[in-house]
Specification:
Radius of gyration: 24 Å
Protein name: Helix-turn-helix domain-containing protein
Order of helices and strands: HHHH
Number of helices: 4
Distance between the termini: 58 Å
Largest sheet: none
Helix content: 55-70%
Organism: Endozoicomonas gorgoniicola
Strand content: under 5%
């Protein structure tokens, strides 16, 4: 995945007349990545990954809760 800096460099190189293959080689990515960046006309949107608990967190949480009947 490219970042904003990569996108700006791709855009500048393309405006200078560089071939897509040359740009991809310079950036170390595939030609399709360069095409996609130019087609999108901007850097990729920032993704905010959702933090989700592990699969075992629910089980541990359930085991910690003691039903009221066991307190007596």
């Amino acid at each position: 995945m490219i970042n904003r800096e990569d996108y700006l460099m791709i855009k500048q190189a393309r405006e200078k007349g560089c071939y897509l293959e040359d740009i991809a080689c310079q950036r170390g990515c595939s030609v399709s990545t360069v095409k996609r960046a130019l087609k999108r006309q901007g850097p990729p949107p920032k993704r905010r990954p959702g933090i989700r608990p592990s699969k075992l967190a629910r089980i541990f949480h359930e085991k910690r809760q003691v039903p009221p009947n066991h307190l007596i």
